[in-house]
C-alpha cells in the first residue's frame, strides 16, 4: 500500500489532466451528453500508462521509493496497479452516473459507451506500460501511434457522424458490444493479458537493464 500510494503520487504528475477528466465527466453527466467525455477519459487513463518508469528520474517520489527500500520489482508492479486503480475509480464514477440516470429515466447508451472506452483505454495504457520496459523506442512509438489511431476512431466516431444524434452513438455502442465476439471483451482480455503477463516481463526487463 505504501508503494501504491507513492506511485499514485508519481502518476499524479499528470493530475491536471485527471482533474479535467473528472470535471468533464461530471459536467457531461449533468448535461446528459456523456459521449463528450469519452476522449478525455481515454486520454487520461492512457497517459497514466506513460508515467516515467525510471526511479532515479522520477524526482522526489522516485528518490523516496529508493530511500524507503521499495524493491524495483515492486515499484514496477505498482505502476500497473496505479493504472488499474485510476481506471477503477473512473468506473465507479460511471456506475454512480448510471444509477443517477436510471433514477431520472435517461437513456444509458452513452454510459455503456463510457465503460467501453474505459476498457479500451485501460488495455492501451497497460500495453504502453509494458512496451515501455520491454520494447525498443521504435516499436513503442509505432504501437503507441497505432493505439492512438484506434482510440480516436472509437471515441471520435460519434462526432464524425453527428454527436449525440442518438442513432450514431447507439450504433457505435451496439458495435462495441456486438456478438459473437464483442470488441469490449477483446479489449478486456488484452488488459488482463497485459496485467498478468506484461507485468512479470516488465520486471525482468527492468532488472536486466539495471544490471
Report on the architecture of this protein:
- The protein is mainly α and 211 residues long.
- 80% of the residues lie in helices and 0% in strands.
- The chain is built from nine helices and no strands.
- The protein has helices at 2-11, 15-31, 38-48, 59-67, 72-104, 109-134, 137-161, 167-176, 183-210.
- The longest helix has 33 residues, at 72-104.
- Mean pLDDT is 77; it is low at 54-58.
Q: What secondary-structure arrangement, pairings included, does this model have?
A:
Blueprint: H1 2-11, H2 15-31, H3 38-48, H4 59-67, H5 72-104, H6 109-134, H7 137-161, H8 167-176, H9 183-210
Helix pairs in contact: 1-4, 1-5, 2-3, 2-5, 3-5, 3-6, 5-6, 5-9, 6-7, 6-8, 6-9
In short:
This protein has 211 residues and is mainly α. It has helices spanning 2-11, 15-31, 38-48, 59-67, 72-104, 109-134, 137-161, 167-176, 183-210. Helix 6 (109-134) runs antiparallel to helix 7.
Give me some keywords for this one.
0% strand; 211 residues; mainly alpha
> How would a textbook summarize the main sheet?
none
Helix content: over 70%
Shape: globular
Strand content: under 5%
End-to-end distance, in Å? 27 Å
State the total count of DSSP E strands. Answer: 0
- Order of helix and strand elements from N to C terminus: HHHHHHHHH
What multimeric state do the chains show?
Answer: single chain
**What is Rg?**
18 Å
Discrete helix count: 9
Mean pLDDT: 77
Q: What structural category arises from helix and sheet content?
A: mainly alpha
| Regions with little confidence, pLDDT below 50 for 5+ residues | 54-58
Amino acid at each position: 500500500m505504501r508503494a501504491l500510494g507513492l506511485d499514485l503520487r508519481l502518476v499524479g504528475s499528470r493530475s491536471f489532466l485527471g482533474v479535467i477528466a473528472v470535471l468533464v465527466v461530471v459536467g457531461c453527466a449533468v448535461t446528459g451528453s456523456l459521449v463528450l467525455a469519452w476522449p478525455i477519459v481515454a486520454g487520461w487513463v492512457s497517459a497514466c500508462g506513460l508515467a516515467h518508469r525510471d526511479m532515479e528520474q522520477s524526482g522526489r517520489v522516485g528518490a523516496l521509493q529508493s530511500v524507503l527500500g521499495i524493491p524495483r520489482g515492486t515499484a514496477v508492479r505498482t505502476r500497473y496497479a496505479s493504472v488499474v486503480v485510476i481506471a477503477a475509480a473512473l468506473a465507479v464514477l460511471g456506475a454512480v452516473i448510471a444509477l443517477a440516470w436510471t433514477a431520472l429515466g435517461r437513456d444509458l447508451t452513452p454510459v455503456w459507451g463510457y465503460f467501453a472506452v474505459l476498457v479500451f483505454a485501460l488495455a492501451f495504457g497497460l500495453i504502453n506500460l509494458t512496451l515501455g520496459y520491454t520494447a525498443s523506442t521504435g516499436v513503442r512509438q509505432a504501437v503507441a501511434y497505432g493505439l492512438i489511431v484506434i482510440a480516436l476512431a472509437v471515441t471520435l466516431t460519434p462526432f464524425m457522424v453527428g454527436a449525440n444524434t442518438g442513432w450514431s452513438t447507439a450504433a457505435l455502442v451496439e458495435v462495441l458490444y456486438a456478438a459473437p465476439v464483442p470488441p469490449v471483451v477483446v479489449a478486456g482480455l488484452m488488459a488482463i493479458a497485459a496485467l498478468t503477463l506484461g507485468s512479470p516481463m516488465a520486471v525482468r526487463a527492468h532488472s536486466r537493464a539495471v544490471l
